[in-house]
Design brief:
By secondary structure, the protein is mainly α. It is 73% helix and 0% strand. It has one domain. Helix 1 runs antiparallel to helix 5 and helix 2 runs antiparallel to helix 4.
Length: 157
């Protein structure tokens, strides 16, 4: 039961981050003023990208202070890897982190940075879709699993 609750909380946190990021980045693209909450969310996403490039061992704090559980964190990283499509992953993560810092500090993106803002919005849309699927799966009883191998594996226990 604890495992299920943990997965549900992680999916909820990642989904909320994704939703808030899509909305905040939409305001950036429309040149609407950002709220204080938008700036906090942009800073949280920046922290996420900086964590992804860190060479340090990741030690997450209590569940309540985490935006992503382990699975959601790796889902987000996978979306960035796919989006990088041959580019240097670490370079892209650093570029996103720098852009998010500028946006959180209230700077408008340059014309050249607009494409990265759109890419970030698409990235967080994908993270939101992935975490919604994760939450959907976590909410089901093992015998109702939609993915056949999961259903088979859980029926063995």
């Amino acid at each position: 039961m604890i495992e299920r609750k943990s997965r549900e909380e992680g999916a909820l946190s990642a989904g909320l981050l994704a939703e808030k990021m899509v909305l905040a980045l939409g305001r950036v693209l429309r040149s609407d003023p950002l709220t204080d909450e938008d700036k906090r969310v942009l800073a949280s996403a920046r922290d996420l990208f900086e964590t992804m490039t860190s060479r340090d061992v990741l030690v997450f704090g209590p569940r309540a202070s985490r935006m992503l559980d382990d699975g959601s964190y790796f889902d987000a990283l996978e979306v960035v890897e796919v989006q990088a499509n041959g580019d240097e992953l670490e370079e892209r993560l650093n570029r996103y982190a720098e852009l998010l810092k500028k946006l959180a500090d209230g700077h408008d993106p340059t014309n050249a940075e607009q494409d990265d803002v759109r890419s970030l919005r698409e990235l967080f849309t994908e993270v939101g879709e992935t975490t919604l699927a994760r939450a959907n799966e976590a909410s089901r009883a093992p015998e109702d699993a939609t993915w056949r191998p999961t259903k088979q594996a859980t029926s063995l226990f």
